[in-house]
Amino acid sequence: MSKPKGVYDNAATGDTSFRRTWDRDEYAHKAAERQAQEAKERKERYEAKVAGKKYLPKLDANINVKEFDDSKMVEARRDRIRLDENLNKVQIVPFGSTGGRRGKGAGYYCEACDLNFTNSLEYVEHLNSKQHLQATGQTDIVERATLEMVRERLQWLKQRKRDQNRAEQFDLAKRLAERRNIEEEERIERKERKRVKKEEKRREKLKANTNSVNLDDTQDRDATTMARMMGFEGFGSTKQR
Amino acid sequence: MSRTIAPDAKAMLDTRGLYDGPTIHSMNPLLLMEKIIRERIIDSMYWKEQAWGLNAATLLDRAVDLQYIGGQYANQKPTAFICLVLKMLQLNPEREILLEYLQDEDFKYLRALAAFYIRLAWPAAEVYKTLEPLMADYRKLRLRTQAGFKLTFVDEFIDDLLTKERVCDIALPRMPTRAQLEDMDELEPRESLVSDVEEDSDEEVGEEGEVGED
Ligand SMILES: [Zn+2]
């Protein structure tokens, strides 16, 4: 039995989609994964039943919606059906392939039913049809939600929102802090450059004015300039890196 | 009530005049929406793709993604909001479930959706009693119309639901005014803080004219 998820795997692929190119190894790998997951769920459902409880899929803020799979009944689509894949692409249309025809062609192809659709609406209608549901081991019966199911879902969505907000805020705070650091560094560098330039100017002026200045004085000034350039001076006024 | 539901509205509409499911205001709930817009919804991509197979729990996934309220936009395309209203008419959620939607503080469009449904489906006195407390919710809502986006607020939207005949391109079921219901002893006069504020601002609005009116 394939899961409802299978429904979404049928969207027509690239512009050479009429060529059957699927990778058998990957297909086998996916099938094995799916079987393992189904077995796990069957076990959980069985255990719940033995315990006289209703099986509920694990609610965990870290899992994504895809992992909600509580029954073989039809569920809401978990992903958007990928309908825009072939949009704006020039496609080679094999001879004789039009909407709802057998075999792969341009547009949307349903692997399970081996049918091809030229427009997205027809394709989605097909995915909703009894014929397709039957072919993919699904029914068109939806379980009515109880108040508990609604509460649980809502709590999960609220938690997801909180997590997303927190992640965004953290991200924003991090980026702002990084930005601030960069700006601060740039500011200090600018200040230093200015100071050094000023100092040089002053020194040149001094040199020009007093050619006969004593040696110690010049050395002193040089030392001060050096110290400033190295950042030894002014620790109190500028932030440490 | 049945444990299962249909994935779409087909069975509920294809009754050949012999509808025997649950009713709202003694009629097939889906008929609360006029035929023309109902058909546009049912033909829409959103309905077929996103609203198909929902129940009252999975509907939340869609409701929390809503970005705006509204009826039809652009070239008479139904909004996701109005599609979900029709979905709710099909699902006919229990009272407690609707209150769960309505009372949630995190998702304002879920609240707007529940409020709209309650206005469509519940008896008049219940509508006033349940929706009036939301007049204290001043959060912004985006409203999408044929003419583009507009800014509105939860309290303004609730006020529209209680006083206007059409909201979001849907004709609302006729409802007595609050004063009429008070006269019939179906409603106690309001005594909340909100009601005081309301009465004060009512006088002012009278001078300015109906600003929000189309
Ligand atoms: Zn199919």
From TrEMBL, chain A:
<keyword id="KW-0479">Metal-binding</keyword>
<keyword id="KW-0863">Zinc-finger</keyword>
<dbReference type="InterPro" id="IPR036236">
    <property type="entry name" value="Znf_C2H2_sf"/>
</dbReference>
<dbReference type="Pfam" id="PF12171">
    <property type="entry name" value="zf-C2H2_jaz"/>
</dbReference>
<dbReference type="InterPro" id="IPR040107">
    <property type="entry name" value="Snu23"/>
</dbReference>
<dbReference type="GO" id="GO:0005681">
    <property type="term" value="C:spliceosomal complex"/>
</dbReference>
<dbReference type="InterPro" id="IPR013087">
    <property type="entry name" value="Znf_C2H2_type"/>
</dbReference>
<dbReference type="InterPro" id="IPR003604">
    <property type="entry name" value="Matrin/U1-like-C_Znf_C2H2"/>
</dbReference>
<feature type="compositionally biased region" description="Basic and acidic residues">
    <location>
        <begin position="185"/>
        <end position="207"/>
    </location>
</feature>
<feature type="region of interest" description="Disordered">
    <location>
        <begin position="185"/>
        <end position="222"/>
    </location>
</feature>
<feature type="domain" description="C2H2-type">
    <location>
        <begin position="110"/>
        <end position="132"/>
    </location>
</feature>
<dbReference type="GO" id="GO:0000398">
    <property type="term" value="P:mRNA splicing, via spliceosome"/>
</dbReference>
<dbReference type="GO" id="GO:0046540">
    <property type="term" value="C:U4/U6 x U5 tri-snRNP complex"/>
</dbReference>
<dbReference type="InterPro" id="IPR022755">
    <property type="entry name" value="Znf_C2H2_jaz"/>
</dbReference>
<keyword id="KW-0539">Nucleus</keyword>
<dbReference type="GO" id="GO:0003676">
    <property type="term" value="F:nucleic acid binding"/>
</dbReference>
<protein>
    <recommendedName>
        <fullName>C2H2-type domain-containing protein</fullName>
    </recommendedName>
</protein>
<dbReference type="GO" id="GO:0008270">
    <property type="term" value="F:zinc ion binding"/>
</dbReference>
<keyword id="KW-0862">Zinc</keyword>
Automatic annotation (TrEMBL), chain B:
<dbReference type="GO" id="GO:0005681">
    <property type="term" value="C:spliceosomal complex"/>
</dbReference>
<feature type="region of interest" description="Disordered">
    <location>
        <begin position="180"/>
        <end position="214"/>
    </location>
</feature>
<feature type="compositionally biased region" description="Acidic residues">
    <location>
        <begin position="196"/>
        <end position="214"/>
    </location>
</feature>
<keyword id="KW-0508">mRNA splicing</keyword>
<protein>
    <recommendedName>
        <fullName>Pre-mRNA-splicing factor 38</fullName>
    </recommendedName>
</protein>
<keyword id="KW-0539">Nucleus</keyword>
<dbReference type="Pfam" id="PF03371">
    <property type="entry name" value="PRP38"/>
</dbReference>
<dbReference type="InterPro" id="IPR005037">
    <property type="entry name" value="PRP38"/>
</dbReference>
<dbReference type="GO" id="GO:0000398">
    <property type="term" value="P:mRNA splicing, via spliceosome"/>
</dbReference>
<comment type="function">
    <text>Required for pre-mRNA splicing.</text>
</comment>
<keyword id="KW-0747">Spliceosome</keyword>
<comment type="similarity">
    <text>Belongs to the PRP38 family.</text>
</comment>
<keyword id="KW-0507">mRNA processing</keyword>
